[in-house]
Each structure stands twice: as structure tokens, then as C-alpha cells.
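Exercise 3.2. Students should predict the tertiary structure of the chain below and write it as C-alpha cells, then compare their answer with the key that follows.

Predict this chain's 3D structure.
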Amino acid sequence: MQLRGTVVDRAPMIEAVMYQLQDETGEIWVLSAEPGVERGDRLLVRGTVRFESILIEELELGEAYIEETEREVEQADDSEPEAGSKAGMTSKNEQ
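Answer key:
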């Protein structure tokens, strides 16, 4: 899977970081073992789609996310994107 978008949120974790990538079609969380992602960065990310199952009273509330395998910073940006601002993201299944 290949994605392109802008980082709009971050969640540091022990030995990892999760960041939310956004484009005109929506948002998705990305799990990475590599630090250095900042809000406003425009990235090209390659990774694997994963799903975390969360059952609450027999309801499936799980969520899909991307486990990053490769990242390219296309544009570092120290300023945060405006609310509702989105950058282009493409999605391709790699065979």
C-alpha cells in the first residue's frame, strides 16, 4: 500500500510513534518504529494494512491502520495545517 498525505496528528508511544495522515479522501493512522514525524510534514508512505479488533459488548469497534515499512518526507513543514486543509494522497495496492 502506498499513501501520500499530510501529518495532522501524532501519538508518541514506547519504541514507536503513531501519526495520522490526511488527504482529500480522509484520514488514517500509521504505525512507525522511526521517530521524526511532525505535524504539517507531507509524506509518501509505504506499508501494510493492519486491523486492530476491539470488541465491546459484542460490537466490533476495531480500526484499520497502516504499519509503515518505508517513508519519504516530500515537504517538512514546521507550521500546522489549517483545519479542513488536506493534501493529495494516492493509494495503490502493490502486488
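Discussion points: The mean pLDDT is 84. Residues 2-75 form a domain with the OB fold (Dihydrolipoamide Acetyltransferase, E2P) fold (CATH 2.40.50.140).
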